[in-house]
Amino acid sequence: MLTHNLGYPRIGINRDLKRLVESYWNDEIDKAKLVESASALRVLHWTKQKEAGLDLVPSNDFSLYDQVLDMTLLLGAIPERYQELYQQENDKINSYPIDTYFAMARGLQDGQHDIQAMEMTKWFNTNYHYIVPEFTEDQTFQCLSSKVFDEYEEAKSVGVVTKPVLIGPVSYLLLGKEKNAPDSFHRLELLDRLLPVYQEILHKLEAMGVDWVQIDEPFLAMDLDAKSKAAFSKAYDVLSEKEDLNILLTTYFEGLGDNTELATSLPVDALHLDLVEAPDQLDPVLNNLPKETALSLGLINGRNIWKADLEKANGTIHQAEQIIGADRLLIAPSCSLLHCPVDLQQETDETALPNEVKRWMAFANQKLEELDLLKKLATNSLSDNEVAKLKDHQADIADKGRSKLVNNEAVQNRMVQLDDSALNRNSPYAKRKRAQQENIDLPDLFPTTTIGSFPQTKEVRQWRADFRKGKLSKTEYEANLKEATQKLIKKQEEIGLDMLVHGEFERNDMVEYFGEHFAGFAFTRNGWVQSYGTRGVKPPIIYGDVHRPDPITVRWSSFAQAQTDKPVKGMLTGPVTILQWSFVRDDQPRSQTAKQIALALRDEVADLEEAGIKAIQIDEPAFREGLPLRRADWDTYLEWAVDAFRIASTVVEDKTQIHTHMCYSEFNDVIEHIARLDADVISMETSRSQMELLDAFVEFEYPNEIGPGVYDIHSPRVPDTKEMVTLLQKAANVLDPQQIWVNPDCGLKTRGWEETLPSLQNMVEAARQMRKKTKSVRT
Fold this sequence. Notes:
By secondary structure, this protein is an alpha/beta fold. 43% of the residues lie in helices and 12% in strands.
């Protein structure tokens, strides 16, 4: 019985990857140092996994930015706009084209080049973002990068024989988008051109002595049409043509469902199942599994931080063992540990994470220890010390269920009393709009605003760190925040923005900040998880019933509003996003937790309105992310997710404007539910997709107001006014201009002032030109 891991957090125990890559971007280190330091980080990770007792340690799961972008480079699918840059770089160094790689992820604007980044979107239903491959009808592929081979040899040189990880050919194509191609063209038509490159990669790995290769095909857990199913059969008939190389085919985040027969028929050596998300799939798979195929059981939750019930997991192992035998079993986490923080032992601040709650948890390194303990339990090879360790482990799980920290009678009573009266605004949107026009001074056409946060410079982050460490008094800290807020209000006025924000300088993260102020939450000091590139988040931990002891944002919103005559939005994170971007308790339905959060936010919304805040934004960027992967499960989720937003937002009077923000979402298939949120204004990411997301709002005739993002804040590029006017014109061609707001596509927290100010100035000028143009056409 082998143990293996699908992937290890590449962020580093102290966010080493972030510091390393950003040092390169800031010209503080050169390519040689970047390559050397990245190698050291990989070696550290491989060694840690080997020491934890893993039989199969993954390689090629490390990435300087994103694993899908790594595959794009490996397969030679570099879009045309980067080809000149690639050729220039390749001619100079004849090795891994790091600058081209980062330009694809972030765009490039350096005086010589002005290249837009590739699109970025969510990795299935997680908060990880990947770079979307682009495919043309005449797309070609070639084995371009040596990364997967180099890293195998690198690990071998330090005594770790690894299992290289690849994204499978069908999932790779399905993760991408067709570009500049006729509507009749589908990217799966490229499979015949792609498979020879995969064959070349596998043959080379086999020649290097690789025993196992992991091929991720997460789309096998999705709803598949006939074309996609046929593509899987064709792909693995071709890729099975090898002799000594074993293919471990992995699925995760959901069960195989009606794809069970397809998945078990593929000629691979082992099949991995996520038995945390979908435990019911085990029996059907066991009944269909060919006699020569091994089975990998994903029993340790790779997406949450609670300790695994090892005795329950052992029961699952023995269930499978009785049917196919122990020699055909592998055990593993449910998915890559990319989605977990690295090491719980880093958490030593009991004020943030009480010891009682910490006892219930396991981060990536602890999950590897759980896996080793589980194998020894399953094989009856526990030492006396390990028997005691297992007993303590299971006792911690039992204590969690009994803890008084988890249950709050007042919250539970409020949930019982919750009824449909909390779900509706006083009046329909048309009537509210008139009241809001009278209450809020805004231009008739193309009002401008931002999404909320402004650059959190190193100085601002240092204030927060010094305050936490006691180096800065509360009075000094708050004086700094007030000064920063006052300066920002003045800057926004000078830029000419119509609806302002307070900048959120007091906040560390849009979800973590609320977690720190809600009861029922704990939080970490070092529990970083990669969101995209070098962007990390520290998800709060929901361990018990949620409520709001005191107002959270009212003070800072009121202070900002007192500095200006222009309206300043109150800024909140919505209940679904707080749920999705937290580590959620696993002892009650997620819908119940979402509604508890919504009630806490409802109190905050009411207090903001009472304080004189005329517009309140309740961000829900994770709304679509929360969708189950199977459409059959959508309606249940959408019902409670919409209800949660409405519980939070409907407490206000008609004159108070409710905004929401969503990013990196395909809205076409859920547009009716987006409309049911009944927000007065929705802003969203549309710049990287060149406004194509607006098609959903047109076909549905969305009634309320829309702020399509006109520039990409995830790139350091400064778009010019002409570029933004072009995007706004696209929006005005499909929407009533009176519906359109003008804003960036997301918050500006991660950007620098040198990019932010000129971008916003260009944005405001674009709005002015559109107002002038629209009024001219009307007259």
